[in-house]
Amino acid sequence: MSGAPYDGIVLTCPVTVPYVRYSNETAHWWIARGLRGTLDAAGLKPGQIDGLSVSSFTLFPDTPVGLAQHLGLSLRYLDTIPMGGASGVVAARRAARAVQAGDADIVACVAGDANRIDSFRQLLSAFSRFSLDAAYPYGYGGPNATFALIMDAYMAEYGARREDFGRIAVAQRANALRNPHALMKKPLSLDDYLNARMISDPVALFDCVMPCAGVEAFLVMREDEALRRNLPFARIRGSIERHNAYAGDPVQLRGGWAVDIDTLYAQAGCGPQDMDLLQTYDDYPVISMMQIEDLGFCEKGGGAEFVRTHDLTIGGDFPHNTSGGQLSTGQAGAAGGYLGMVEAIRQVTGQAGPTQVADARLAMVSGFGMVNYDRGVCSGVAILEGAA
Amino acid sequence: MSVLDRLTGALAGGDVRVVDLTHRLDPDFPVIVLPPEFAQCARFRMEEVSAYDHRGPAWKWHNLTLNEHTGTHFDAPIHWVSGRDWPGGAVDEIPAEHLIGPVCVIDCSAGTAQDDDFELTPEIIAAWEAEHGPIPAGAWVLMRTDWSQRTGAEYLNMAEDGPHSPGPTPDAIRLLLERDIRGFGTECVGTDAGQGAHYDPPYPAHFLLHGAGKYGLQCLCNLDLLPPTGAVLIAPPLKIRGGTGSPLRVLALVPGGSQ
Amino acid sequence: MTLPYPKKKDPQKRTVVPTLPPAMRSRAALGLSVAAAEGRFALQHCGECGAVQYPPRDACHACLSHDLSWKDTKPYGKLLAETRIHASPDPYFRERLPWRMGSVQLKAGPVVLAHLVGVGRGDRVRVDLRLDRAGQGVMVALPEHRSDDMEDDPVLRAMGTHPKHRRVLISDATHPVTRPLIDALFAAGAAHVFAGVPEMWRRPHGLSALDGLENVSLLPLDVTDPQSLKEAASEIGGKVDILINTARHIRPGGVLGHDTTAARDEMEVNALGLMRLAQAFGPGMAGRTADGVNSAAAFVTILSAHALSPDPAYGAFNASQAAARSVAQTLRAEFAPSGLRMACVYTGPTEDEWHQPLPPPKVAPKALARAVVDGLQQGLEDIFCGDVARDLADRWRSDPGLLEREITGGGA
């Protein structure tokens, strides 16, 4: 059964603080910058928001409670979404419900992480119990190894080839070259992709994201509030989340999106053919390919053929990960789970600047998070519509 | 000048020399080996307590583990069942003046060189007395065999029928007791011969000497540096309450070169 | 593949500092290590619904029951996916790249991630549960049919304690196990055996069995004598890759009727001797656990199974065995950061003069030797040799209190 509509609730003031490969600043510092950015965009003072939703891996020893005091915020809605790549979608849909129900008036959603030298290794080392117990002791390849197994099995099952995944990475790099904030500045050819050094067969260098520091943020408020403040905004046409789907699948060849996708389209009153752009969670191209299938853009196993026959760049027939995605802009911890959401708000509100897809009105944002043991556990999807 | 002044003068001037009759105590010095079902004589063991380190910054010392009868040692009368009731028969009860006395050395080294089971007999003692005069009462009698020059397995000289090493016959001990000696000493691991269990009484030196309140010394060395007569033996065991014996440093005062 | 004998070390190169694979585990996951230490393949089974699960959990993933227990499980499955890791932030694996791992669908149900040895995607595999260098149980997928030189694979070599090309010190050559142990070690490819002789000055019995053996060196070594240990360690300490402590002092007798002289000797040899031996050789071995093909790998001590629960007829001896076991457990913790394995071989009554009046079953020296070397080949940590030891361990695990009462005569 579809959820109630998100009537009267909007997403606005998308902010990306440019990423940095390594930074000595803390998560608190980065989150404060993101929060300040989105408030500035709305013309709000910190005392004027009453809700906060935080996603971050590097706040330790603080939780968002400590962060609220740290940042001097008095709140009546405080949430933390520890869902990695699914955080953006989940934060938005929960904040929307809180505002809709009157539990909060304005919720700032923010995700950001620090990245000091060695902090990625330390993050991995305490990531999850199953990973600790049953994944890291086997070569400590981190997510690269986990997704190598998924990619290996996917290729064997559906006959996808490396160049198919390369097309996704190459198109995203082309998009990233138009995004001044992307960390990756050099063009990427399919040969570059195919000849790159192996990281964990068949995952090669350009299948991997680069960990960095950064923050993404947006605001959730009532539509009348946005109109009163003259802010461009996006509505949520529908959203779903699903965790630990298909637990019996021996290898993750499909994600939780597939469970509820029909519900989503029913709620949104539209179909895949109506989307002007798609933001997938792209920690690895194989996962983006899986999302293209599970979100209904093609049949299962048809992802490789789909990317062979579509142009995934901003100007193409299937604009995908228009900011360059994590593969080309970098993965700023939990902010990676907001990247697609923030970019999609920009796109449907006409604020994407150099990466703007012409006439973008409907965008689909898909999240995928928390690699635990052998697979990602969290998934979520939202369909956004520009207000214009 | 007093006697002691003269003695210290002689020691300083070399007219009296000090001979050390003691083996070094170390973990590999042989001890008596009993059949395995008996409790065994503790080997000498030394564990560092500290050595100018975190366990004691300015000092070094050891804890020792040993038996009363480990290394060069003294046997008190209560060591043997025959001397168990001897008054004053424990090491702590022995009067101090008993611990210094004249010493007679009977050289059996030639015979021992031919025969591992060489026996000290009354005849050998009689021949010695014929040459050097009667053994005086209160004298230590030491049986020189040069056995102390052996080491390790040759020292115990174990065979399938037990150890083989020289020692006194029961009659030899009886004769020494007639002379009222102070004690009897050897270079071997015991005062008795290796095969001493087969005499009547078994282990005659232990049985008869301690039964008569006499002392034993074993694992001695350097007996070849002593004159047959004329030396003084200093053999004070540790003052262990109820002790049946004690490792000790055995010294002999012998006339110097000019005499 | 056949592992070549290592070249001599370049003395101008720094010895590689040991690193460990990730050692941290949840409490539930330690069950894998317990099973691996004994060479068993065990997984969590739900007592209510029978579900078999992995990774280890605190509740059944099928029915939420907390009635979970580790049970021996059939280790067969199929390799679903594989990868060869070329980049790892972990220092241990970085030194050993590329590293192969994959996911295995077990016939028993769960999918397990595993190290791969000699298998590829789609192969039918048998999964071993072995201790890795961190001392934790890990899955290793191997072919269903093994070949002799499979243990030469770098993955197994890195985590194991195989005697091949290694130099072994047997602490007390007078133990009746020595000759068969030497034979078994050489059969497993050991390069050299040093054999310690206590009170070498008295030429103890039992050494004649070693006469004329090649690649065997006798040396004075007495675990009650710190000086002899110091000398032996300074002479051969840098060449001992595996140490097998066979020093044992045993006398029948309980506590009331037994004299403390013999009991002290037992403690001196069996418990304190193990401690002294570890003090003399342990730090040097711990510093050489990453020293190439013949790196230091294991410290083994032989214990009576009655270390777990005493037989009053050997009460004082068993007190020393319990103490020795406790010492070994502490050593296991102390060696852990170096990856040096501390293995305990528990044996039932052995076929020797001190158990002569006892009825069978008794452990023959050859069987004990076999158990030690098998354990080293599989990298085990807790080895139970013989029916008596296995039975005792089973009963001890299930109910130590009941076992005590059974042994002490309460059992009909």
Describe what this molecule looks like in 3D.
Chain A is of the alpha/beta class. Chain A folds into two domains: 9-118 and 212-232, Thiolase/Chalcone synthase (Peroxisomal Thiolase, Chain A, domain 1); 142-210 and 234-386, 3-Layer(aba) Sandwich (Peroxisomal Thiolase, Chain A, domain 1), CATH 3.40.47.10. Chain A is 36% helix and 21% strand. Chain A has helices at residues 27-42, 64-70, 87-100, 119-125, 129-134, 142-158, 162-176, 190-195, 223-228, 257-268, 285-294, 303-308, 325-329, 336-348, and strands spanning 9-20, 51-55, 77-80, 106-113, 198-200, 203-204, 213-222, 233-243, 277-279, 362-372, 375-386. Chain A has a nine-stranded mixed beta sheet with strand order 3-2-4-7-1-8-11-10-9, sandwiched between helices. In chain A, helix 7 (162-176) packs across helix 11. Chain B has 259 residues and is α/β, with parallel strands linked by helices. Chain B has a single domain, classed as Putative cyclase (Glucose Oxidase, domain 1, 3-Layer(bba) Sandwich). Chain B contains six helices and 15 strands. In chain B, helix 5 (170-178) packs parallel to helix 6 (204-211). The longest helix of chain B has 11 residues, at 3-13. Chain C is an alpha/beta fold. Chain C has ten helices and 15 strands. Chain C has helices at 30-37, 91-94, 154-159, 178-187, 226-236, 260-286, 315-335, 365-378, 386-398, 400-407, and strands at 42-46, 52-53, 68-72, 76-85, 99-106, 111-116, 124-131, 137-143, 167-170, 192-197, 216-220, 242-245, 298-304, 341-347, 382-385. Chain C has a seven-stranded parallel beta sheet, sandwiched between helices. In chain C, a hairpin with a 5-residue loop joins strand 1 (42-46) and strand 2. The relative contact order of chain C is 0.11. The mean pLDDT of chain C is 94. The interface between A and C is large, with 37 and 42 residues. Chain B: It holds the Pfam family Cyclase.
